[in-house]
C-alpha cells in the first residue's frame, strides 16, 4: 500500500525537473494557467520539459492548475451559469491540448480579496457551482474516452477561508483537496506564531498547525480520503530577533526584516556555508535555524517524515507540496517518497 504524492511544478521552475523524480510522484499540478475574459488560458513556455519529465512514468497524472495567488477572474466567471459553463469548457480544452489528466483549481480565495482580486459574498456558493460544472463536463468526457479525469482544489488553512467554502458539498465533487498547510506565519507574524508549517500546535504559541487544519476540514465535512496535507519547499526568516523568552520572540533593538528562502538556499547557504544551528521542536514536529540574530522556519526531511507518519495514522489521502524547483537538493521529495511509498 502507498499514499498519494502530489506536487506543484511551476512553469518557471521546469528546468529543474530530473527524470528519477517522476516515479516518486503520483500527481503533478502544472502551475499556472490564468484567466482571461472568463476563460482558462495557458501562460507556459516550458511545457516541453514537463512532457519529457512525464514520459519517465506512464502512471504519472498531470493536471492543469488554474489560478494561484492574485489570479483574478474567478469571482466574475463563477457568478453566472453561462460563465461557469464557458470556463469549464475552456479548462477542459486546455487539458486536452496536452493530453493532461485533470484540472486543479487554485482560487485564492472565494469570498476574500486578500490578494487584491475581486470577491463577493456569493463566491461561497458560486465556487461550488463552478466545481460542479467542471466535474460534470469531465465526467461526460470521461465516459466518452473511457478515462477517469481528476478534479482537485487548493484551499487555505485560515478560518476565514473555511467560512467561505461549502466543504461538505465540495467533498462530493473533488477527488482531492490540497490543504495549504503552510504560510501559518510570515514576516513579523513570526514574532508570535513561531512556525510556518508545523505539524502540531504548542500550548502557548504556534496554535495554527497541520493537525488543526485537518481536524477543522474533517469537522466541516471533508472526507479523510480526499485530504492532502501540504509541505513547503521554502521557508521564512526574521532578522534582529532574540530567541524566544517565555514563549515570545524578543526584538534585538532594531527593526526586524523578514526573509523568504527556497529550501535549496536554506540548506546550501545557511546550514552548509554559514553553519546556522538547527533546533528541533519535538512537540510541534518542526525544525528551525538560529545564528544569534536571524531565525528561520521551514520543512526539512525530518519534519516531512513526521508529516508522512501523520498521513498514515489519520488514514488521509496523502501529501502535496509547493513547489518542486525550490528544492534542488531533491531530498524533500525523497523523504516524502520513503515515508509514503
Automatic annotation (TrEMBL):
It is an enzyme of class 3 (hydrolase). Its EC number is 3.2.1.14. Keywords: Carbohydrate metabolism, Chitin degradation, Glycosidase, Hydrolase, Polysaccharide degradation. Residues 3-341 form the GH18 domain. One of its GO terms (molecular function) is endochitinase activity. It catalyses: Random endo-hydrolysis of N-acetyl-beta-D-glucosaminide (1->4)-beta-linkages in chitin and chitodextrins. Pfam families: Glyco_hydro_18. CDD domains: GH18_chitinase. InterPro entries: Chitinase_II/V-like_cat, Chitinase_insertion_sf, GH, Glyco_hydro18_cat, Glyco_hydro_18_chit_AS, Glycosyl_Hydrlase_18. GO terms for biological process: carbohydrate metabolic process; chitin catabolic process. Signal peptide: none annotated. It comes from the Bacteria. The keyword Transferase does not apply. Belongs to the glycosyl hydrolase 18 family. PANTHER family: CHITINASE, CHITINASE 12-RELATED. This is chitinase. It comes from Clostridium bornimense. The lineage of its organism: Bacteria, Bacillati, Bacillota, Clostridia, Eubacteriales.
